[in-house]
Amino acid sequence: MSPKKRSQTPSTSTAPGQSRRGKTQTNIGRPAFLSDGEKGTRLQKFLAVAGVDSRRHCEDFIRDGRVTVDGEVVTNPAVSVQPDDQDVRLDGERLRMPRYRYYLLNKPKGVVCTNNDPAGRPRAVDLCPNMDQRLFTVGRLDENTEGLLLVTNDGALAEHLAHPRYEVVRRYRVQVAGIPEKEALAELRDGMYFSDGFFRFQNLRVLKKKGRSTFIEIELQEGKNREIRRLFARVGHKVIHLQRISFGPLRVGQLEIGKCRELRSQELKELYDFIRQAPHSRSVGKPRRKPRDAAKKKFASGGKKSTSEKSPAKETGSRRGAGRYSPVKKGAVKKSAAKKKSVKKRPSAGKKKGGRRGK
């Protein structure tokens, strides 16, 4: 028998596959770079996309000999398959590429974004109609944060939106205790170092003051673990309420908390256009090394690099990397080698210069 899927109870007033306005999604051109091209799809990945289970569990199913391709048992998860042209079966049941689904969810507090929660807490995917497909959230919001989440079964699109190298802007509305001074706001804009990295707000704007609290709108290009709460706590202001209001081109709008709807055709088109314009290479921002042409010009004369032209050593800001990148003095290696040789030449404590130990 095929593996059991965890039931996902719909919690939406709209019919599956239909938006609130009553218009279903049309076939809008999905960006070509999101597909795997002519080489096909890894068998393990295809099973996960088909809604069988997570990739890790799908790998176990393949290694156990439960998967066949064109009638032959395949035990290698990395085998490439063409789902449209080949017959792929799990326990004798034919698997096909599913229709991609995209849902906009206004996540409430107390709901987690993981698909596998041992504590049994409410999951975000349970608030969307699953249509017998495995859904997951694009990125995460912590349990006490509410707001916009994109829920889908499109893994390639999820990677382009969630990975930091694509610089997708996330906008939040936050209410903090107290009234931050200008110095505190400047610190938040400049950023601060934490044990797990450098945190900063891309943009920050004070909206209004209410009693002894302040409403602020902030922008991030990379969502790290409890980044917003930790930054405000560092400047002495506790976060009272936190809501994500936009993610890339998507807006939460008037969608009620706890409700879910399928993306409208125009929203899906804007999302695809946004992905097409986003950088698709890993080198985002300033290049790490200088162009080859510039390097060729430097060495055109045939001379060596001068000491002033050498690239500066890495900063030793963190304790963990301080010893690794500390500069080595000239001749230190030679001196240590010579010291070892001198130790070897020394006579042992019980020997005389003449040779054997005296009687």
Please, could you describe this protein's structure?
- This protein is of the alpha+beta class.
- Among the domains are: 36-94, Roll (Structural Genomics Hypothetical 15.5 Kd Protein In mrcA-pckA Intergenic Region, Chain A); 102-277, Pseudouridine synthase (2-Layer Sandwich).
- The protein is built from eight helices and 17 strands.
- It has helices at residues 43-49, 55-63, 155-162, 182-190, 227-234, 265-277, 292-298, 332-345; strands at 41-42, 67-69, 72-73, 80-81, 88-90, 93-94, 102-107, 136-137, 146-152, 170-177, 192-194, 197-199, 203-210, 213-220, 239-247, 250-251, 260-262.
- Strands 7, 8, 9, 10, 13, 14, 15, 16 and 17 form a nine-stranded mixed β-sheet that branches.
- β2 and β3 (72-73) form a beta hairpin.
- α1 packs across α2.
- Mean pLDDT is 76; it is low at 1-24 and 281-330.
- It is an enzyme of class 5 (isomerase).
- InterPro entries: PsdUridine_s_RsuA/RluB/E/F_cat, PsdUridine_synth_cat_dom_sf, PsdUridine_synth_RsuA/RluA, PsdUridine_synth_RsuA/RluB/E/F, PsdUridine_synth_RsuA/RluB_CS, RsuA_PseudoU_synthase, S4_RNA-bd, S4_RNA-bd_sf.
- One of its GO terms (biological process) is enzyme-directed rRNA pseudouridine synthesis.
- Its EC number is 5.4.99.-.
